[in-house]
Design a protein that fits this description.
Elements (H helix, E strand, L loop, with lengths): L1 H44 L8 H19 L12 H18 L3 H6 L1 H27 L9 H10 L5 H7 L6 H25 L9 H36 L6 H21 L4 H19 L2 H29 L3 H5 L5 H32 L10 H10 L5 H11 L8 H32 L3 H4 L35 H5 L5 H17 L19 H6 L1
Length: 543
């Protein structure tokens, strides 16, 4: 009898605890959705503002909300949700990166591919080694905790990751098309390279570094890079083949849209399952899907997928900055670094300086090397453009925070003094760089490149190296009916297209890839319809 009473009381207590927990979750979600709506409305109202954009607006709203929650909870908490690197990497980042690949203007991306790869991969490696070596030399003398060589190298990877999301909102593809294309492409490759570097560092004993360890590290890095790209291309081609062969849209357009979304997400999760780079995988999956799969679906599905992917990416971006702003004031993260605020400020200042130096260490030298391969001044990256490229890539964002949490915390918290200082310093650098550098980028562009708007008012050619990388219409490859102004610097190239890589790719694409996987020019048909290739010609003439 006593046991029965005890069991019933325990059940009531558990039920009450669960209902309280559920109510708190509902309140948190309501507040967060309301804040998202506020970010969207304010972003619209500030669209023409020269200082603010939606990323910075969401960050400011997040910080203000965190302050309000801190005051109402008497300093116990500053957020309604806890930042988790799993939430970031599994749910928020995939739609952002996939949409970047899906909306990319492929001709310009691959025409500038060598420069983008030079900045994104080689440049990130230079920045990584610059920041890592400087961190080892400086922080090892500051007595900030039990940090080893592996931690210092991880710092190099963490602060080499630019914030491509905020960069996209700061730069304008109509005003500065070439800079937009270069910084955007570099940002995506940079994020992927930084994450691959970070993951590769976890697999080695870096306390005993020798030639073999370095060679194995580079080999592992190349393996992750190539394997991730291959998996993304394979996933995109598989989706194109399935939708082309089955022509799912003849029964339900909802199914083909759902299949595209799920296969894109599956490619990312497969990469994570296989310990590859999900960022690279889903980015190249997006490129391949826009080149083949998107053309295989019905017209209504094309409109739906384009806007659906863009909307999901937009919501994830806004959610992300709101999330970071609120989480930055979490009292738990600052508690273990509060006994030495001067040292924490010093570390943050040093890291910010290393970010500036690390980016300058590759932007200006690699721009010089890139200019050596250009034949005309119009193709070269001018000094003022180099300064803008350097400045626009100084912002650090959620990738850096997520990697720092992964390295220096357990379940979002740490009680180690050195780790706590690195977490708070990362948050400080992210907030300061996003707010200051993000707000100053537009005025800087207008000061250094005052003629950028008039220079880009002419119709841009799809052959031009300075054309925007992104386009609002995915089928832009077909848009040749619009009058195009051919740049004089490429006339010799255009008169002999047989010598270009693009020419041979088009031949291979038309001869082998498109007949198998569909793509531009593919017309879906319903069996028995006039477009059915199996219908006899006599029947077609009678229809």
């Amino acid at each position: 009898m006593g046991m029965g009473v005890l069991a019933s009381q325990l059940a009531r207590q558990l039920g009450g605890a669960l209902s309280t927990s559920d109510h708190a979750s509902v309140v948190s979600i309501n507040l967060f959705v309301a804040l998202l709506c506020a970010c969207i409305v304010l972003g619209h109202l500030l669209e023409e503002n020269r200082w603010l954009n939606e990323s910075i607006t969401a960050l400011i709203i997040g910080l203000c909300t965190g302050v309000v929650i801190l005051l109402t909870t008497k300093g116990k908490s500053s957020h309604v949700l806890v930042f988790s690197e799993d939430l970031f990497f599994i749910y928020l980042l995939p739609p952002i990166i996939f949409n970047a690949g899906f909306q990319v203007k492929k001709k310009q991306f691959f025409r500038n591919f060598m420069t983008i790869t030079l900045f994104g991969a080689v440049g990130t490696m230079i920045s990584f080694f610059t920041i890592s070596l400087a961190a080892i030399a400086i922080f090892s003398r500051m007595n900030i905790g039990t940090l080893d060589v592996g931690d210092f190298l991880a710092i190099g990877a963490i602060f080499s990751a630019t914030d491509s999301v905020c960069t996209l909102q700061v730069l304008n593809q109509d005003e500065t098309p070439f800079l937009y294309s270069l910084v955007f492409g570099e940002g995506v490759v940079n994020d992927a390279t930084s994450v691959v570097l970070f993951n590769a560092l976890q697999n080695f004993d870096l306390n005993h570094i020798d030639t073999m360890v370095i060679l194995k590290f580079l080999g592992n890095f190349l393996y992750l890079f190539v394997s991730s790209t291959f998996l993304g291309v394979f996933s995109g081609l598989l989706s194109a083949y399935i939708i082309k062969k089955l022509y799912i849209g003849r029964h339900s357009t909802d199914r083909e849209v759902a299949l595209m979304m799920l296969m894109a997400y599956l490619s990312y999760m497969l990469a994570e399952l296989l310990d590859l780079s999900g960022i690279l995988t889903v980015f190249f999956c997006g490129i391949v899907m826009s080149h083949y799969t998107w053309h295989n679906v019905t017209e209504s599905s094309r409109v739906t997928t384009k806007h659906a992917f863009a909307t999901l990416s937009f919501i994830a971006e806004t959610f992300l900055f709101l999330y970071v702003g609120m989480d930055a004031l979490d009292i738990e993260k600052w508690k273990f670094a509060s006994d030495s605020p001067g040292k924490s400020i010093g570390v943050s200042s040093i890291l910010l300086g290393l970010v500036l130096v690390g980016r300058a260490a590759f932007v200006f030298p690699l721009s010089f090397l890139s200019n050596l391969t250009k034949k005309t001044p119009a193709e070269k990256i001018s000094w003022r453009q180099q300064v803008v490229i350097w400045w626009a890539g100084l912002m650090r964002g959620a990738v850096s925070i997520a990697l720092a949490y992964n390295k220096f915390t357990r379940a979002g918290h740490t009680e180690l003094h050195g780790n706590a200082i690195m977490i708070t310093s990362t948050i400080t650098v992210v907030l300061f760089s996003t707010m200051l550098f993000g707000m100053m980028t537009k005025p800087l562009i207008r000061f250094l490149l005052p003629a950028s708007s008039s220079a880009t008012s002419e119709p841009s050619s799809p052959k031009s190296l300075h054309s925007p990388l992104l386009t609002s219409l995915i089928g832009s490859d077909l848009e040749t009916a619009v009058p195009m102004v051919r740049p004089s610097s490429l006339r010799m190239l255009l008169t002999k297209p047989t010598h270009t890589v693009h020419y041979y790719w088009r031949k291979f694409d038309d001869a082998l890839m498109r007949p198998m996987f569909g793509g531009r020019g593919f017309v879906p048909y319903t069996p028995g319809s006039p477009t059915d290739p199996n219908v006899p010609i006599e029947r077609l003439t009678s229809i």
